[in-house]
Amino acid sequence: MKQSNKFLCGLFAIATFLMTSGSVLAQSYPSKPIRIVFPFATGGGGDFVARFIAQRLSETLRQSVYVENRPGAGGLTGSDMAIREPADGYTLLLISNSYTVNPSVYNVKFDPIKGITPIARISEGPLMIVANPAFKPSTTKELISAAKAEPGKFNFASGGTGSVVHLAAERFGSMADIKMTHVPYKSTGQAITDVIGGQVDLVFASTASALAYVNAGKLKPIAVTGMKRLASLPHVPTVNESGLPGYEVILWHGLIGPKNMPPEIVARLNDAIQKILKMPETAQRLESEGVVPAVDGTPAKFEALIKEEVGIWAKVAAGAGIKKPE
Length: 326
Fold this sequence. Notes:
Elements: H1 2-28, E1 34-38, H2 44-61, E2 65-69, H3 76-82, E3 91-96, H4 97-105, E4 116-131, H5 140-149, E5 155-158, H6 164-176, E6 181-184, H7 188-197, E7 202-206, H8 207-215, E8 220-224, H9 239-242, E9 250-258, H10 263-277, H11 280-287, E10 292-293, H12 299-319
Parallel strand pairs: 1-2, 1-3, 5-6, 5-7
Antiparallel strand pairs: 3-9, 4-7, 4-8, 4-9, 4-10
């Protein structure tokens, strides 16, 4: 009986220690600067989101949070480096849809689902289908009809083969049963420049990269790829409502960390991000870039989204005949 009591007391002591140590860990974190790795070059919507959330986390956590750009290989260079760092919460990685595309177009050296710790989504927003102003089709229906009448006549630009904007266009073509010619560029900026110049017909672009040109009349908006119209462009319809029911592509950004991060630290970061996303000034600032705060909240929902999109883009890449490098 005494041995049984000692055993139970020992279990209780261990449980108490674990709970206390977890609480202490959460309270003491962060005790030094936090690095957010952004696996692309400076500039653009993703870099803006990284620097925005770094600044706000610095204020909320009362600790320095900074962004380190590590571009290369479609985001793989920075991603591979970041998730191999210690899982102590001091190196995080800002990802977007391209993270879920990469396993289908590159030889990824890590498990994109089981090899990470999801923390929180931050922003979301649709792509825009934009064309040169002289491009005759002005609606989704007109584009699909014209492309069916002359298969392969129209072309679309992208920021590179296997990029999310490339696969968004391929998914559009597959669902609409049309064929357009892909013209890859080294960056979305170069792709947009040539659409404006008339060398290419259209591009699926992030709202952040296309909005200023649309407002200036240099690009013609055909549709947005979300299920809701943009508040900043209420006259531009969604693809779903204007000719291709069920089509949706949302560009998002979120934070992940290395595998096996302590749950207490994940909760601390997630709680801080949710508070930031609920601030009225956050919505105003993000909307100026054509995106809105993500509302799904939990790490579990973020993990489910990553898993779902890895599967979706694998099917799109296979259907488009995109092969991984040898």
